[in-house]
Write a structure and sequence with these properties.
The chain has 9 helices and 3 strands, in the order ααααβααββααα. It has 177 residues and is mainly alpha-helical. A 3-stranded antiparallel sheet has the order 1-3-2. A hairpin with a 6-residue loop joins strand 2 and strand 3. The chain starts with 30 loop residues before the first helix and ends with a helix.
């Protein structure tokens, strides 16, 4: 693993192993080789190959629904540790498979839950943004109305418009605000 063990302090020599390490670039494994595998690793590596694109990994999960609707917790642990799929662990609920003795989860359902949560979050964010924009627009219109009424010496109408929203709307229409 190290090209020159002689550069290490003598005290550390016993702590460092000099052995060969083989690294496997998961994205370089051809699909044909993945299909030859007959274990959970096939699907774990398959999903890891797709993590650059949310659409790609969602498509992969849906295409392999048989495995991912009953994905073992151990496979989820590896996927969670090696990918950047947000909220995967928090969205899964595991149940014990009596046959295998291992906990399993439904990743397809978890993806749907993650998507639904993201959509609701986006809707709330959009609503807040819309409310803020609407409030800013109302302030702008109100300020223009105040300026016009003051310029015309209509302080009583100005005062009335602060408590009578129907009257205020009539003034907005009158002044084309």
């Amino acid at each position: 693993m190290m090209t020159d063990m002689g550069t290490l302090p003598e005290k550390m020599m016993g702590l460092v192993g000099d052995y060969r390490v083989n690294l496997i670039p998961m994205r370089a494994i051809p699909e044909s080789e993945l299909q030859k595998m007959d274990s959970d690793l096939k699907y774990v590596l398959g999903i890891m190959r797709c993590t650059r694109s949310r659409k790609r990994y969602e498509k992969y999960i849906r295409e392999n629904r048989d495995f991912f609707t009953r994905i073992p917790k151990s496979a989820v642990d590896v996927i969670d540790a090696c990918t950047n799929i947000k909220d995967i662990r928090e969205s899964l609920q595991f149940t014990l498979n009596e046959e295998s003795g291992e906990e399993e989860g439904d990743l397809c359902k978890a993806l749907d839950d993650i998507k639904r949560h993201a959509e609701k979050k986006g809707e709330r964010k959009g609503e807040k943004k819309g409310e803020k924009k609407g409030a800013e627009e109302m302030r702008r219109r109100t300020n223009i109305l105040i300026q016009r009424l003051l310029a015309e010496g209509r302080q009583e109408d100005l005062l009335r418009s602060t408590s009578d929203s129907l009257f205020q709307q009539q003034l907005f229409r009158k002044y084309h605000i």
